[in-house]
Design brief:
It contains nine helices and 31 strands. It is α/β, with parallel strands linked by helices and about 400 residues long.
Amino acid sequence: MKKKKCIAMLLAGGQGSRLGLLTKVMAKPAVPFGGKYRIIDFPLSNCTNSNIDTVGVLTQYQPLELNSYIGSGQAWDLDLSYGGVYVLPPYMTAKSGEWYSGTANAIFQNISFIQQFDPEYVLILSGDHIYKMDYNRMLNFHIQNNADVTIAVRPVPWEVAPSFGIMNVDEDNHIIEFEEKPKNPKSNLASMGVYIFTWKVLKEYLINDNADPNSKNDFGKNIIPNLLNDKKALLAYAFTDYWKDVGTIASLWEANMDLLKDEPEFDLTDPRWKIYSRTPVMPPHFVGENAVVETSMITEGCEVHGTVRNSVLFAGVSIAEGAVVESSVILPGSRIEAGAVVRRAIVSGDCVITANCQVGEDEGDIALIGQSTTLPEGYVVKAGEQVDTDEITRREAAGK
């Protein structure tokens, strides 16, 4: 079988609990973003654009929608006879079977998958970040520096550094210390969750880690510290372009709003680095005679008769005349009826915001409506509240 120089392993099995109701029915990488995309489109498109044509996608939590979305990989030109995209859920063997117990364990359980391609290098990716990156440049950096592992890093504001894995480096970009979410960080170089390993080194450390009963089977907590302790060559690869961890409701909303700036921090229209996705076949969007649309992204299949300002509308959304949507993200197939006002909110797919409802407020945290929820007429959802059908039923039972 033909040898591959580098293959990618994309960790896409996280529950994404910080995204609340958005991940109640789907894995975090399947969450929609930017009008016509899903979060997983970005690392998959980066692989395609970087000529990395073999990608294992490791799924676990609520995988149905993600598996269906990936399909054969055709949307990303990854439907190959040798290589392409593979969905890799946990599985039973003749001796045992278990859930992925950590990021390192997820890769360990798929050593046989990796081995069939006999790669020299393995690229480990996270499925919940929005960015555009040429992994080939990083791979060349790794090879030129004869590294055992190269970790992509980027500067973050000092005030948020304690929430990241922080790399401390010397003048030659060798990583000399790794701190997992330190209270008092020594630098603001945060790990992006993008690693390139020399495969023979990674395989050895995965096997040893699996044999350690005290290990958390995690790259940040175990594999990287063990490599440092053994004086392996760990290099930091600096990345300074746009990168957003969209693991919270606020950060997902902010990343969508970033697309609407006069000079967007993140450009989806660059023909040199296309973001590929599976999109529905729908008619062009329609904007009615009395509609008001300002600084917004309106995707195919939308009908807008009301007012939409500074918002992102996904495919098949309808905004009735007399409805107002401001600074919000409306996911596919949802309907905002006359008299309803939606501000600073994320409305999940296939929802109905009925007449005279108030969702979100001008200030405060982002309001969230769960999948396939119909709000009763005149219902009020305050800033920061999360509401779905179960919550409405609970409130009604409590007489609220």
